[in-house]
Design a protein that fits this description.
By secondary structure, this protein is mainly alpha-helical. It has a domain of 55 residues. Helix 1 runs antiparallel to helix 2. The chain is elongated, with a radius of gyration of 17 Å. The two termini are 26 Å apart.
Length: 80
């Protein structure tokens, strides 16, 4: 058994190219380098890769204003 993700198409010999799409945006600034307002503004616009570090930084700073922002962020991904 492989350690990777199960691939439904592996049996037919198709191997997907694993590379970033051309429209992929580069990583933004470090969450620790953002001020409180910029951090709170970055959370709603973030995806699954960028959101958790931003949420962790808001928790580390104990930002009460981040609670409704994080609730909305989590609701976006509910059901996935």
């Amino acid at each position: 058994m492989s350690d990777g993700q199960f691939d439904l198409f592996a049996g037919i010999g198709i191997t997907p190219a694993r590379q970033l799409p051309p429209d992929a945006k580069p990583a933004g600034p470090s969450p620790a380098s953002l001020d409180d307002v910029a951090l709170l503004e970055a959370i709603p616009a973030s995806g699954l890769a960028d959101g958790p570090p931003l949420a962790a930084e808001s928790g580390r700073r104990r930002l009460v204003a981040a609670i409704p922002v994080l609730e909305d962020y989590c609701r976006r991904f509910a059901g996935f």
